[in-house]
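Please, structure for the following, as tokens.
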Amino acid sequence: MERKARKLVIRNIGLLLSGRLEQPILDGDCVVAIEGRIAAVGHEKDLDTKVPRRWSMPMG
């Protein structure tokens, strides 16, 4: 049986920070991580957020 990749989707992010001085604020509201590594950052409507193993919605 083929093992499905673990996917984590963090959505509804208010302010997305990059950690880079050249571009500290990113345009987006969602982060998708696969197998513990960030795979995509952007707007939820533009990303593949189907069938996550885990959802997270920051409160605040």
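The chain has one domain: 7-56. The chain is about 0% helix and 40% strand.
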